[in-house]
Structures are given as structure tokens and as C-alpha cells.
Amino acid sequence: MTIELASAENAENPGSTGSAEGTTGASAAGEGSAALDLLAQQVRDLVDAVVLTGAPQDEIVEITAELAVLTDRLRALRRTSRHPLAFDPEGVPRHAGNAVTGSANPYALPLVSQVTPDRTIRAELSFRQVHEGPPTSVHGGVSAMILDHVLGQAVAVAGGAGMTGTLTLRYVRRVPYGEPLVATAEYVRSEGRKSWAEGRIALPDGTPLVEATGLFITPRVWKEEMTGAQ
Ligand SMILES: CCCCCCCC/C=C\CCCCCCCC(=O)SCCNC(=O)CCNC(=O)[C@H](O)C(C)(C)COP(=O)(O)OP(=O)(O)OC[C@H]1O[C@@H](n2cnc3c(N)ncnc32)[C@H](O)[C@@H]1OP(=O)(O)O
Predict the structure, then answer these.
(1) Cα–Cα distance measured from residue 173 to residue 112, given in angstroms and rounded to the nearest whole number
(2) 130-186 residue pLDDT tens
(3) Quick one: where's region Disordered (predicted)?
């Protein structure tokens, strides 16, 4: 199922092929084109290279000018609508432009999550040095962003997709970058339009680094639109 949110413009959608059912992860339902995904990955690589560059000043100036040309070229072909929102067969909402999971969004990790048989959201991830906050550690806001998303996915697959009302975090241990980590989240319960979930970012052996609980509220307008879309 592909949903254009009510406020989305209905113009041409050149960068997207809509939903692709039967897959999970960053290239699942709601994906962009393969070429756009590659462009986004190239830009992630570029961001990493910028943060870590030791290039001399004149080289930086020259590279900046070359990049400005490419930026103008892309900006001239700017899309006129959002990437469509779609739900994969497991009920996970996805779209290629999402800030956390979007395959077409260089800002996104991108986080690739799966729904386990017991309906836990599970994502293997690895942060990069560009996510650094305190020396050698991932910025706490970046961890929060990931947890917000996987908790939101957990309530979505339980049928309570919503906007984050509250997100409570406990930073237990520093989060390293450049190492394999696992983010998981589970739906807890619902009361009317409110749903709760909990989750964590942990080492592969299960040692928790950041723990989260969240309340997600399905806006009344979504209820109506989702009912109308099915
Ligand atoms: C056709 C559409 C289909 C969509 C399908 C789903 C797609 C996506 C889903 C999933 C994706 C994957 C996961 C993503 C995860 C990331 C999510 C985010 O980052 S969300 C961005 C950050 N959060 C905001 O920006 C919220 C801003 N706030 C609001 O929009 C509203 O305040 C909202 C929706 C939270 C509530 O507004 P009201 O008008 O619907 O509901 P009211 O009547 O105000 O409240 C209902 C009940 O909830 C309580 N409540 C409201 N806000 C609360 C809050 N912040 N904390 C605690 N309780 C709150 C109220 O006290 C009330 O409780 P009482 O029924 O009286 O017991």
C-alpha cells in the first residue's frame, strides 16, 4: 500500500518508483530508484570524506567549487513532491526520503530494520565518525533519533502508527562508532490512540548502551486517512 500524505503535492515524482512489496530494509517499500540510492550513498561517502579530510586549503577551495557545480545541477532538477510513504508486507512504514531509514536520503544512516517473528523491530547498525559527539562516542541525539524510529516502527507494526508524544532515554554506556551494534524495539501496550514501546541500542552480545521508552499518539486525522486508504 502506498499513501500520499494529505499535505503532499500531487505533481510529478521523478525520483521514485513507489512501493516494492516483498522486501524489507532501506530498499524496501517506498524506495527510490537504484540510481538515486547510489547517489545518496555517494553523498554519505562524501560527507565522511569531508569530516575526515586533511586536504590543504587550496585543494578544499577547488573541491568546494566543483561540488557547487554538481549541487546546482541537481537543484535544477528538484522534485516537486515527497517520496511516497508505503507500508511493507510486515506493516512497517517506509519512504526513501526518511531521515533515519531513507535509502535516497544521504542524511539517513540508513537504518535497515526487520520485523522478527515475535514482532520485535531489529536493526543491525554501525555509526560512523560523522556521528561523533563526545570524543570517540556517538552523539546522544543521534542515538535518540535511531531509538525514536525503531520504537515508532514497533508501534506501527502493532497497528498503532503515530507521532512521538514522549521519548525517554537512559544513556547507560558510551556508544562507540565504527563497531557493529544492534537496535531493537518492542510494542508494549495501547490505550485508545496512545501506544507505548520500549527499545535499546546494544552491543551484539546484548549489553545495553542506550535504553528508551516512548509514547506514540495516532493523530485523529491519520486514523481517518488510513481507514480511507485501505
Ligand atoms: C494517512 C497517514 C498515514 C500515516 C502512517 C504512519 C506513518 C509513519 C509512522 C511511523 C513511522 C515509523 C516510525 C517513526 C518514528 C518517528 C516519529 C516522529 O519523529 S514524530 C515527530 C515528533 N513528534 C511530533 O512532532 C508530535 C507533535 N505533536 C502532535 O502532532 C500532536 O500533539 C499529537 C499528534 C501528538 C497529539 O495530537 P492529537 O490532536 O491527535 O491528540 P490530543 O487530543 O492532543 O491528545 C490525545 C491524547 O494524547 C495525550 N497527549 C498529547 N500529546 C502528548 C504528549 N506529547 N505526551 C503525552 N501525552 C500526550 C493527550 O493528553 C490526550 O490524552 P487523553 O486522551 O486526554 O488521555
Answers:
(1) 23
(2) 999 999 999 999 999 999 999 999 999 999 999 999 999 999 999 999 999 999 999
(3) 1-28
Ligand 1 site, residue 87, Cβ cutoff 6 A = no
Residue among 169, 51, 185 at smallest CA distance from 115 = 185
Taking the CA of residue 150 as reference, the ligand 1 atom at the shortest distance is 13
Q: What's the pTM?
A: 0.88
**Residue 224: which pLDDT band, with cuts at 50, 70 and 90?**
confident
pLDDT digits (tens, 9 = 90+) for 6-47: 333 332 332 333 333 223 334 444 556 999 999 999 999 999
Q: Is the CB of residue 146 below 6 angstroms from any atom belonging to ligand 1?
A: no
Spatial separation of the C-alpha atoms in residues 104 and 99, rounded to whole Å: 9
10 Å CB burial of residue 125 (0-12, 13-18, 19+) is middle
Q: Which atom of ligand 1 is nearest to the CA of 194?
A: 48
CATH code, residues 111-229:
3.10.129.10
Judging by beta carbons within 10 Å of its beta carbon (0-12, 13-18, 19+), is residue 166 exposed, middle or buried?
exposed
The finding on whether 219 has its CB within 6 A of some atom of ligand 1 is yes
